[in-house]
Amino acid sequence: MTESNSKAAKELTEIVEATMQNLHSKFQSMSDQIVSKMDDMGTRIDDLEKNVADLMTQAGMDEQQTSK
């Protein structure tokens, strides 16, 4: 292998490694955003379930369901 081929291979390796690191960073960022949004959705669902249960209790539906 000549010196120019060796230099070209080294440069190509560096470019590929930089690109892979960049992709890894972007995927990690997207993954973190997705997990955060899923956590937020879970919290909202929990709040919604609590509000529905509270409304059912206020409407007296809880007593009707438990007496059946």
Explain this structure:
This protein is mainly alpha-helical. The protein contains two helices and no strands. The chain has helices at 3-58, 61-67. The model has no long low-confidence stretch (mean pLDDT 91).
Question: What descriptors fit this protein?
Answer:
68 residues, mainly alpha, 2 helices, 93% helix
- Give the percentage of residues in beta strands: under 5%
The total count of helices amounts to 2
Structural class: mainly alpha
* Radius of gyration, taken over Cα atoms and rounded to an integer in Å: 28 Å
Biggest sheet record? none
The level of helicity is over 70%
Tell me the number of strands.
Answer: 0
Q: Give the uncertain stretches in residue-range form.
A: none
How far the N terminus sits from the C terminus, by CA atoms, comes to 85 Å
Shape: rod-shaped
Mean pLDDT: 91
Order of helices and strands: HH
Coiled coil: 38-65
Protein name: Heat shock factor-binding protein 1-like protein 1
GO molecular function: transcription corepressor activity
Keywords: Coiled coil
